[in-house]
Amino acid sequence: MSAHTAETELTFVGKLVLEGEIICQTGLHIGAGKGSLEIGGADNPVVKDAFGVPYVPGSSLRGRLRSLLEQTMGLAVPGELVFLSKRKGQEVRIHQSDRPDDEVCVLFGRNPGRMERVGGEAIEANAATPARLTVYDAPLVLESITQQMRENLDDELTEVKSENAVDRITSQANPRTLERVPAGARFRFRMILDVLCPEDKPLLGRVAEALRLLEDDSLGGGGSRGSGRITLANLTLTWRDKDYYAKGTTEANLLSNADLAALQQLAGAEDFAEKLA
To answer: What is the pLDDT along the chain (277 residues), one digit of tens a residue?
Structure first.
């Protein structure tokens, strides 16, 4: 857990800007919902922007990072979970606590005003905690879909994977199709970690940990069936302090064209906090 306490005062210190590439090692499916179904199209289309180009929603990437941290930190247990939504009979639970040193809640924010604990017990009415981590939508690098790849795709930018669910008793097949961005595609991601107090500086280590977990897990749907394996590459990390915004001073480049190992090593260095002075 972090060094945050109930007496920690929040004041703007600066921003850590992390950018890089998401590289698909297998096909990637992030669903667009049933509202976007087209006649003759795949049963499960991928989300696309207004120009019909697939992208990785920031909410999908951010939610996956939070989920992985909750699991690895032992927070995905009934006593730690709250209802996020109970619409249309669906129950979505996430971790949320009122502990000031809870790094997951510090990173991703908390809003106890609209949640309740599992079983209906209300959370204490504490003030909301501002989220430190912002994750933006990641656009597709169009050049990553090569002409050779396009010749073998079902659409200009995507492939269609056919799957079958077989009834265990009758052996009746239930075919379905899954639209995916093909292996080899790259997306440009950008996330910003707000440093609102000195105690926030070690949070970069948690972000790096979540990203490394993601590389050995999956992003999007169909992960247990082979989809969504990704790697992260060409990372850059920039520090922009208060004077950068107030006086136009120069930003500090902390990493360039790095991998996750280098990011984690930097975040764990003893002098890392001094770099953000």
So the answer is: 678 888 888 999 999 999 999 999 999 999 886 544 454 455 789 999 999 999 999 999 999 999 999 999 999 888 888 877 666 667 788 888 888 899 999 999 986 554 444 444 444 445 578 899 999 999 999 999 999 999 999 899 999 998 888 888 998 888 888 999 999 999 999 999 999 999 999 999 999 999 999 999 999 999 999 999 999 999 999 999 999 999 999 999 999 999 999 999 999 998 898 888 7
Closest of 20, 52, 23, 25 to residue 36, by C-alpha: 52
Instruction: Name 254's Cβ contacts closer than 8 Å, sequence gap at least 6.
Output: 16, 237, 238, 239, 266, 275
Provide the CA 137 distance to its chain's centre, in angstroms.
10
Point out which residues pair with 117 in neighbouring strands: 82
Q: Report the phi/psi class of residue 35: left, alpha or beta, with left for phi > 0 and alpha for psi in -120 to 50.
A: alpha
